[in-house]
Amino acid sequence: MPEPIPELDHVVINVAGRLDEAETRFRRLGFQLTARGHHSLGSSNHLAVFGENYLELLGYESGAGEQRSAIWTSPPGLNGLVWKTQDADAVWQHLRQQDLAGEAPQRFFRPVILPDGHQQEARFCTVRLKPESVPNGRSFFCQHLTPEAVWQTAWQHHPNGVINIRDFVIAAEAPAQAASVYQRLFPTATLHGENGSLRLRAGRSVVSFLTPDAVLNQYGSLPDGFDGSPRMAALGLTTSSLEQARERLIDGEIPFTERDNALLVGAENAFNLALRFHAA
């Protein structure tokens, strides 16, 4: 069975029952968000769609918290690392061979109003690594059965100029241990390391496994409640204009600092994950 290629599809931010608050905050951060969507599984979301990947605010509306309840028990903030695939069934076979398989591939959908006013179902098939293999979060593969219902050009223009997710950061006291599950997942992929940190190329993005000190040095903060166990902690974002991102943060009254030609927003101001805006 051919092994999958590491390529970031999207990231998930667990906002649980605080969708309205999260929507407001991420608009203030300068993201254009899609209209609220409602999955056939019971969850609801907003997306910030970029060139090669996207950011998902995932939560539930009043009365729907019992559905997908296992997700809401994980820490708030960044909790989903999602990989691209064109064949979820083949990935599942690979996961079974690596003793990483969770449940069988799952198909679901959500209705979408496209920019031209037409309605379409966005349909997906996902397959997840077994829960115990990914502490404090989830990692899974997503096959887009209707990619045109997600990657619409009109949704890819953001007031803060962000064009792609550049870095996905996992903080851990033992980065090599945190990375080991992904080494099993992608046996022939190379993880590059320096000063105790490891990095895995994932398409145009990089998944980084950093010590807490390294996260603080590069991103300025850690998620609330971090205890040293592996935790999805921060995102690096590529913007076409750092000045545009700066102006949007000021307009949105979002505190930030400038360091090494980047803008840093602390976890306390971005729904429990740190953000770092880099110029393209």
Folded structure, characterized:
This protein has 280 residues and is an alpha+beta fold. The protein has two domains: 8-155, 2,3-Dihydroxybiphenyl 1,2-Dioxygenase, domain 1 (Roll), CATH 3.10.180.10; 162-279, 2,3-Dihydroxybiphenyl 1,2-Dioxygenase, domain 1. The protein is 19% helix and 37% strand. The chain has helices at residues 19-28, 69-72, 88-97, 175-185, 212-219, 242-251, and strands at 8-16, 37-38, 44-49, 54-59, 77-84, 106-113, 119-128, 138-144, 162-171, 191-194, 197-202, 205-210, 231-239, 257-259, 262-265, 274-279. The strands form two sheets. An eight-stranded mixed beta sheet has the order 2-3-4-1-5-8-7-6. Strands 10-11-12-9-13-16-15-14 form an eight-stranded mixed beta sheet. β10 (191-194) and β11 form a beta hairpin. It is globular and about 50 Å long. The N and C termini lie far apart (37 Å).
What attributes does this structure have?
8-stranded mixed beta sheet, 280 residues, single chain, alpha+beta
Which geometry do the CA atoms define?
globular
CATH uppermost class of the largest domain: Alpha Beta
Order of helices and strands: EHEEEHEHEEEEHEEEHEHEEE
CATH topology of the largest domain: 2,3-Dihydroxybiphenyl 1,2-Dioxygenase, domain 1
Q: CATH superfamily of the largest domain, please?
A: 2,3-Dihydroxybiphenyl 1,2-Dioxygenase, domain 1
**Computed CA radius of gyration, to the nearest angstrom:** 18 Å
User: Structural class given helices, strands, pairing?
Assistant: alpha+beta
Read across the widest sheet, the strand sequence of neighbours is 2-3-4-1-5-8-7-6
Beta strand %: 35-45%
**H/I helix tally:** 6
At CATH level 2, the architecture of the largest domain is: Roll
- Counting DSSP E segments of at least 2 residues, the number of strands comes to 16
Low-pLDDT parts are none
Helical residues, percent? 10-25%
Task: Determine the mean pLDDT.
Answer: 96
CA-to-CA gap between the ends?
37 Å
What is the domain total for the residues? 2
Largest sheet: 8 strands, mixed
